[in-house]
Write a structure and sequence with these properties.
The chain is about 35% helix and about 25% strand. With about 475 residues, the chain is an alpha/beta fold. The protein has a six-stranded parallel sheet with strand order 2-1-3-4-5-6, with helices on both faces. Strands 17-18-19-21-20 form a five-stranded mixed β-barrel. Helix 5 (about 125-135) links the parallel strand 5 and strand 6. The protein is globular, with a radius of gyration of 23 Å. The structure holds iron/sulfur cluster (SF4).
């Protein structure tokens, strides 16, 4: 029987070339892998050159205004290109299609296709209709189907794979467009996820990252009708053969349960790393953001995680310049960062998003202030990341070798279980192997070292005997 997740996709007669550009998060990147897979089995050939494409698809993000502006800039360019090449088909798919809908036609009347993330499975069929009829298409339904997640995937790596476990979000944080762009939470059945991961393990994949806007609220129904929660899912995935590492992203702080902490602590394949966005260190701002936790509750989760899993890597997102954010609120955020000493953070200046409740608030922080706060926050984190990395000097870490560095071919590159990038002298045949690297040099972003042979290197980082 053909493996439904096979990457060596069957080739049919070429019907045209497509160029697919992705904006935004890992969910979008993985959706694009599936879209490329679906188009591949229908006979489309992928090209990296938009000039030779018959079909241009932009898989878009609406989380920040900047990402949307980049898409609008490209559409301006494609408008001119369509005048020269009347056969060219251009489509906007994903979050921006869902949020903007007909408004995209008001700006770009010649745009051929607008299709939201709830209807990705229909994309090949809608393209075929469009080719025959020439009529432009808008699809914005959230279809209650997992068909898309059963479709083939043209993955970016043959070692590391993304696996979606839940889509959508029910949280409605006041600044966030995701619940409007991606709809309410829908969990995939655990049996399907396990089957996909088993298939990946059999084909040589070593690491999986489970994806969802909020993986912690995963509740999938198994074949017997029982509900499986996220720690339960991790427990079922841990024994899958071939897979060495399990990661997941993103976790909402309010949903980090004792069972999840125990799963990270006890399941040997689950990496000691968690991304749980704080967004702000000020209770006043957290309330306005409708995050559902206070600063103290966030710090309590941090303590519980660090107590149960010594050395766990912590990552977070922050928004600066939220409406009404005072210097004091911002100082509370900096304090939180100093206290937690995150391994990584992703920080952004606030921009109002359509449909969200925060869009009704006065966006009163001047752009120059937002930018200065962002720079200050990032500089603080760079100094913390550097110190965290320097603490690893002389230690031995386990690295999954991802391959040879493109820029410096004498270097191999990989990541620790905590997700930190490591570089070391390259030797042929290392790709896909777990190796032990003694750290000799550290920057804020990367570690450098030499390969050595020892047992259980991560034990050193986790402070075990
Ligand atoms: S938890 Fe909040 S920030 Fe995250 S996707 Fe849902 S609404 Fe957006």
């Amino acid at each position: 029987m053909k493996d439904p997740h096979a990457d060596n996709l069957p080739k049919s007669v070429p019907i045209g070339r497509f160029y697919l550009r992705t904006f935004g998060c890992q969910m979008n990147q993985h959706d694009s892998e599936r879209i490329a897979g679906m188009l591949g089995v229908r006979g489309w050939q992928r090209t990296g050159d938009e000039k030779e494409a018959d079909l241009i698809l932009l898989n878009t993000c609406s989380v920040r205004r900047h990402a949307e502006e980049r898409v609008l800039g490209r559409l301006d360019r494609y408008r001119r290109e369509k005048k020269k090449r009347s056969q060219l088909i251009v489509g906007v798919i994903g979050c921006m299609a869902q949020v903007w809908k007909e408004k995209l036609w008001e700006r770009f009347p010649k745009l051929d296709l607008i299709l939201g993330p709830g209807s990705f499975a229909r994309l090949p069929e809608e393209l075929e209709k469009l080719f025959f009829s020439g009529d432009r298409v808008l699809i914005d339904r959230f279809e209650d189907t997992d068909e898309f997640f059963r479709s083939p995937s043209s993955r970016r790596s043959n070692l590391q794979a993304w696996v979606t476990v839940i889509r959508g979000c029910n949280n409605f944080c006041s600044y966030c467009v995701v619940p409007y762009a991606r709809g309410r939470e829908v969990s995939r059945p655990p049996g399907e996820i396990i089957e996909e991961v088993r298939s990946l393990g059999e084909r040589g994949y070593k690491e999986i990252t489970l994806l969802g806007q909020n993986v912690n609220s995963y509740r999938g129904e198994d074949r017997g009708g029982d509900l499986v929660d996220f720690p339960g899912l991790l427990g079922r995935l841990n024994p899958v053969g071939g897979i060495e590492r399990i990661r997941f992203v993103t976790s909402h702080p309010k949903d980090i349960s004792p069972a999840l902490i125990a799963a990270i602590a006890e399941l040997e394949k689950v990496c000691e790393s968690i991304h749980f966005p704080a967004q702000s260190g000020s209770d006043i701002i957290l309330k306005k953001m409708r995050r559902g936790y206070t600063r103290d509750e966030y710090l309590k989760r941090v303590q519980e995680l660090q107590l149960a899993i010594p050395g766990i890597a912590l990552a977070s997102d922050f928004i600066v310049g939220f409406p009404g954010e005072t210097e004091e609120d911002f100082a509370r955020t900096l304090d939180l960062i100093r206290e937690v000493r995150f391994d990584r953070i992703f920080a952004f200046a606030y921009s109002p998003r359509p449909k969200t409740t925060a869009a009704d608030l006065d966006d009163d922080i001047p752009p120059a202030v937002k930018s200065a706060r962002l720079q200050e926050l990032l500089a603080l984190q760079r100094s913390i990341s550097l110190e965290n990395n320097q603490n690893l000097l002389g230690q031995v870490v386990e690295v999954l070798v991802e391959g040879r560095n493109r820029k410096f071919p004498d270097r191999g590159e990989g990541r620790t279980r905590s997700g930190q990038a490591v570089f070391f002298p390259w030797k042929e045949g290392m790709e896909g192997r777990l190796v032990n690297v003694r750290i000799e040099r550290a920057t804020d972003l990367s570690l450098f070292g030499s390969i050595i042979f020892s047992r259980r290197p991560e034990a050193l980082i986790r402070g075990e005997k």
